[in-house]
Amino acid sequence: MKKLLTFTLIAAAAFAAEGYKVLTKYKIGGTGGWDYVAVDQVNRRIYASHQTTVEVLDADSGKVLGQIAQLHGVHGIAVAPDLNKGFITNGQSASATVFDLKTMAKVGEPATGQNPDAVCYEPKTQRVFTFNGNSKDATAINAKTNEIAGTVKLNGRPEFCVVDGAGKLYNNLEDTSEIVEIDAAKLEVTRRSSLAPCDSPSGLAIDVKNKKLFSVCSNKLMAVTDIATMKVIATPAIGNGPDAAGFDPGTGLAFSSNGDGTLTIVKLVNGKYEAVDTVTTVARARTMAVDEKLHRVYLLAAEFGPAPDTKDGKKGRPPVLPDSFHVLVVGK
């Protein structure tokens, strides 16, 4: 009986809530939708996409510092702190806006493939990669000169990207439910693998130290891939309508932000990846970024009005209420 009680207590401790909750929100305001959010871990800034602008906030205080405006359908943001540059994908103009991290001034706009979405900076080669949904490829940009370095054909519709810091990038292919590995120097796909039973993967995160990838999937599971073998080794359950994934190397926790108004937390428990906590957020807060210093998660959110009726009798997309756009802060 004592052994059983000890085992029960250990199991309960392992699966206890992680203590994460909504702490506050950083108000931005304005109207319109959003997509990605990114954290500059070095310069301590949050970059939030906001339709035709990128809102810039102080990561430690939440204060709005300014914005990068007159953009064209913003999707992703990536930073290259070693070069003092940031990169924003413009889905409507097939381009990437380059900006100065200190002044927020625009300093270039190289062309990309069609409908660029995710963007990642690869520090070893000092190249930026935009992942282009409609042309199903990736555009490589020399981050020093802003010149195009080449194109990588993906044979699938790309979603989120991550880098390993050693010259490789990884990307989810939404329409084929695969993951690809890209050599940043050679500009070629070196490996590709099925994410089955994952359907329509979107968000992607990486544990560089333990060489694991975390893909969130539309069928409410997270596919954990071992980079060495490119095999799916776990599929913990997550919430409905996921979009982004995150990983905090300081805590070992992986996250899935879900459109149903939840944040799923996954961690390694006794050698197995398990969903260990669910944080209630707000509906449609499905993109996020992890702050590795404060061990917080930033989600983009807003308040919505009633859904309008459409001609076919169905409900349309509810409108964003004016002045309600904000960053939702989750932490301990």
Radius of gyration: 20 Å
Mean pLDDT across every amino acid position: 93
Largest sheet: 4 strands, antiparallel
- The separation of the N and C termini measures 35 Å
Assembly annotation: single chain
CATH homologous superfamily name of one domain? Answer: YVTN repeat-like/Quinoprotein amine dehydrogenase
Number of strands: 28
Assign the CATH class of one domain: Mainly Beta
Portion in strands: over 45%
- Which ranges are low-confidence, i.e. pLDDT below 50, for 5 or more consecutive residues? 1-16
Would you identify the CATH architecture of one domain?
7 Propeller
How large is the count of helical segments?
Answer: 1
Structural class by SSE content = mainly beta
Helix and strand element order: HEEEEEEEEEEEEEEEEEEEEEEEEEEEE
Annotated CATH topology of one domain: Methylamine Dehydrogenase, Chain H
Shape: globular
Helix share bin = under 10%
Strand order in space, largest sheet: 1-28-27-26
Brief digest:
With 332 residues, the chain is mostly beta strands. It is built from 1 helix and 28 strands.
